[in-house]
Amino acid sequence: MEASFEDSWQGRVDLVPQTPQLVALYTVIRDSRTSRGEFVFYADRVIRLLLEHALNHIPLTPRTVLTRLGAKFVGLAYHEKICGVSIVRAGEAFEQGLRQIARSVRIGKILIQKRESGEARLISVRFASGRCTSVDTAKMAVHILTQVGVPAERILFVCMFACPEGIQALLSAFPGIQLITGAVDSGLTADKFITPGLGDFGDLYFGTCEDDRDSSLSFTDSDAGTLDGTSPHTS
């Protein structure tokens, strides 16, 4: 029997468990009625969950410590330093969350511009040393990391959304990397947006979209709505 497209991802794509909490958070940030303030708040929560999950892929080594009661505890410890590399601009939204969970993490940046033709063009690169964390843009970013000596199997590519076309393109080019995402959507629009997606994440997160929503709207305020965007007073 011929293996399905999804079967070829096994072990290479880690979809964060689709818990009710995660689905609710994605529902808020996908909703076109969500204000920028709400979008940033809930996007940050999703990012934190993604990054915490991604840390499960960092190698650990056994470590025994003494508790404050003088008892031994056999546990685990990180034995390598982590380096984050954000793809400007949307990837910069992950930086604060990474700093919150990985103390003294070093962060580099890659700026890639996408031309009208769809071709990705490298603008600038700034790296820190250590482990690192659009499809043409993603491929170029990973290519740059491998060119400076980072083994593909040591790259964790963390993203909010993925789709089959993007996964296939990225993993075909770099079979050794690990992709961590919170959502695998159905496909791409003619304009190369992931659908159902949410639009341009960078514009929404950094407030550069033209159509921002009413900042007074709250999906957790009992008078305005709940996490699923419905009124708590609706029967």
Automatic annotation (TrEMBL):
Q: Does the keyword Glycosyltransferase apply?
A: yes
Record's Pfam families? Answer: UPRTase
Q: What is this protein called?
A: uracil phosphoribosyltransferase
Q: Which residues form the Phosphoribosyltransferase domain?
A: 16-208
Q: Which family does it belong to?
A: Belongs to the UPRTase family.
Which organism is this entry from?
A: Cyanidiococcus yangmingshanensis
What InterPro entries does the annotation carry?
Answer: PRTase-like, PRTase_dom
Query: Where does this protein act, in terms of pathway?
Result: Pyrimidine metabolism; UMP biosynthesis via salvage pathway; UMP from uracil: step 1/1
Name the EC number(s).
2.4.2.9
List cofactor names only. Mg(2+)
Molecular function, one GO term = GTP binding
GO biological process terms held by the UniProt record: pyrimidine-containing compound salvage
Key words, A-Z: Allosteric enzyme, Glycosyltransferase, GTP-binding, Nucleotide-binding, Transferase
